[in-house]
Amino acid sequence: MSFVRRNWLWLLAAIILLAVPFLFYDWTKGRHSGFALTLLSEIGVMAIFALSFNMLMGQAGLLSFGHAVLFGLGSYCTAHAINAVKAGTFWMPIELVPLVGGLGGLVFGYLLGWLATKQRATAFAMITMGLGELVSAAALMFMAFFGGEGGISIDRVMGTSLFGISYATPWQVYCLVLIWAFIAASLMKLQTETPLGRIANATRDNFERAQFVGYDPRIVRLLQFTLSGFFAGIAGGLYVMIYEIVTFDTLGAAKSANALLAAYIGGAGGFFGPILGTIVVVLLQSGVSLISSAWLLYVGVLFIVMVMFAPVGLIGLIGMHTPIRRIGRLGELVVPYLRAFPAALSVMLGFVLMVELASNITIGAAQGKKFAIAGTLIDTGSPVIWGIGLLGLIGGAFWLRIEARRFRLRWDALIEDAKRQGVVV
Amino acid sequence: MTAIALNDVRKSFGRTEIIRGVTLNIPKGERHAIIGPNGAGKTTLFNLISGRFPISGGSITVNGQSTADLAPQEINRLGLSRSFQITSIFPRMSVFENIRCGLLWSQGYRYSFWHLLGRQKGLTEAAEALLEKLNLTARRNLLAGLLSYAEQRALEIGITIAGGADIILLDEPTAGMSHSETDYAVDLIRKVSEGKTLLMVEHDMGVVFGLADRVTVLVYGEVIASDAPAAIRGNAAVREAYLGTDQH
């Protein structure tokens, strides 16, 4: 029972994640939605990747611009292993295949980390950026390993399952991703509670002090980098299982940037932050990109807004409510939140409308697309619709300012009360 | 037995020689203070002994071993630990974790990623005992960066001594403290340096004459006197160079 009580959050997450695909289940045809399952699997893989990125950034204060290199190399190693198993070179159960990616990430993490961790801070970031470009460029040169622009294709139906599962359907792959995501996430969580994990925090806070308690910050960085590579590699291995192909863009700067976005938007300070960030980023990427060609702009704006107004990320914003919850006055924030909500919505809708109009008269027009809201065709040249957008954006911004000030007063009063009660210092 | 031996130690930054041939022997178990006017090179001397900067000339031994070419962490492992003039702690970690980080290496955990810290009873108890000694038990779970200045100084002394080093270097441990805080810090230093070698830089003469067995006066990178506190007080050269103009 105490296991359940201690790990209720994990168990709850597992139940929800197993249930979510059934929301998209096609009961008439009796099968899962392939799109939903692939999207969820992608979230699982990217969550492992973002968490492994945060082992560097959040835990050790190391900002890497080339983390996808370890992810991608893990993918390639896994792809070659699967093809070798198919060819009968050696035998390996399919369930353990992502481990090959992990080991690949571990080995390359050590090799590349040996170079990158000679430095810290900005110099470290620059080296990782260089390594990212280097490996991406190498991917197009070494055909045998990287397969050039076409990449390496695999067939995940290997027939070597320990449980007799074929992994022909997205549902089976999703379950495998889920299991590995839980294993990887819990191992990474446990790692934060080991001597290395804590000393990584210490070198992040004050590397010189860490030296004067006996630690070599270089070795701390290298070990942390190597372990982070292991988990990035597992994510890469699962990626191949989902898409049955790996190409050089798994190694690229855009993939690295995804981890960074997820960690920042979700919050690098808390362990679970990058998972929240991953959900947001993947939904924007795979969901919003279907309806809007300006989705990348939304990701960018969200990133800027988060860094400017909430550098602690989503998890940090949630965490800020803890003292108010402890004094039992969280309910008093409901009304201020409800009042601010329509104002914020107005700003957002106004902004989205303007962006969509602009993108429709440029990219959209070139592609011969029509702009419709709820089935009604919109004349993108009409000043009225631009006026509505502008009003929503600017009027909403003023409205939001007023509500935000009101909210602030309430918030400060509650925090003051929490201080009086000794909940916060 | 000698804890720290400096032989004609020199240090230059560019063309400027900051430490100009310092020879000093500090026997085991001595409480030793270094005083001198601003810019005399006291903190630089600390940085040389602890390996933060390499020396330009001469030699330093710690517990009988030469520290030439050793990194700070390697000198630390010889049994020498230091604090800083500007408070140096782990601000985003809890007070308890600060102390525990100070203990980890000496308790043999090294770079382990297979021990769960929550299960290391001995380690937790050792950290808690030290917190009690520092009077910081009530602050156990607070982020170190949120402590008051005096508490942060106490915490830094705690991190410094946690690893069980037998040579402790404290750089102006009472700088910026009120009278009562200073009294408390002096008590704490006396308590934690029991049976150990203590080398400290200090400006507060009350603290120096109250704590030190021997005092070395450093002026412009040179030792002008090294003697018992009473003798230093009566030394004419010291009076002229230092005490006469800067008496508290």
Keywords for this entry:
heterodimer; A: 425 residues; mainly alpha; ABC transporter involved in vitamin B12 uptake, BtuC; 2 domains; two-stranded antiparallel ribbon; two-stranded antiparallel sheet; 17 helices; 71% helix; B: 248 residues; alpha/beta; Rossmann fold; six-stranded mixed sheet; 35% helix; globular
Your description of this structure?
The complex is a heterodimer of chains A (425) and B (248). Chain A is built from 17 helices and four strands. With 425 residues, chain A is an all-alpha fold. In chain A, helix 3 runs antiparallel to helix 10, helix 11 (253-266) packs across helix 12 and helix 16 (334-366) runs antiparallel to helix 17 (383-420). Chain A is globular and about 65 Å long. Chain B has two domains: 1-79 and 165-248, Rossmann fold (3-Layer(aba) Sandwich), CATH 3.40.50; 88-164, no CATH class. Chain B is 35% helix and 25% strand. Chain B has a six-stranded mixed β-sheet with strand order 6-7-8-3-9-10, with helices on both faces. The two termini of chain B are 35 Å apart. In chain B, 42% of the residues are buried. Chain A binds chain B through residues 190-191, 193-199, 201-202, 204-206, 208-216, 219-220, 223, 227, 425, and chain B through 50, 52, 71-73, 76-77, 81-82, 84, 88-93, 97, 100-102, 104-106, 109-118, 142, 146, 159-160, 162-163.
Could you give the topology of this structure?
The complex is a heterodimer of chains A (425) and B (248).
Chain A: H1 2-6, H2 8-19, H3 34-60, H4 68-86, H5 97-116, H6 121-139, H7 143-146, E1 152-153, H8 170-191, H9 195-211, H10 217-243, E2 245-246, H11 253-266, H12 273-291, H13 295-309, H14 313-319, H15 322-326, H16 334-366, E3 372-373, E4 376-377, H17 383-420
Antiparallel strand pairs in A: 1-2, 3-4
Chain B: E1 2-13, E2 16-27, E3 31-35, H1 42-49, E4 57-62, E5 65-66, H2 72-77, E6 80-82, H3 95-104, H4 121-134, H5 149-162, E7 167-171, H6 179-192, E8 197-201, H7 205-211, E9 214-219, E10 222-227, H8 229-234, H9 236-243
Parallel strand pairs in B: 3-8, 3-9, 6-7, 7-8
Antiparallel strand pairs in B: 1-2, 1-4, 4-5, 9-10
Helix pairs in contact in B: 3-4, 3-5, 4-5, 5-6
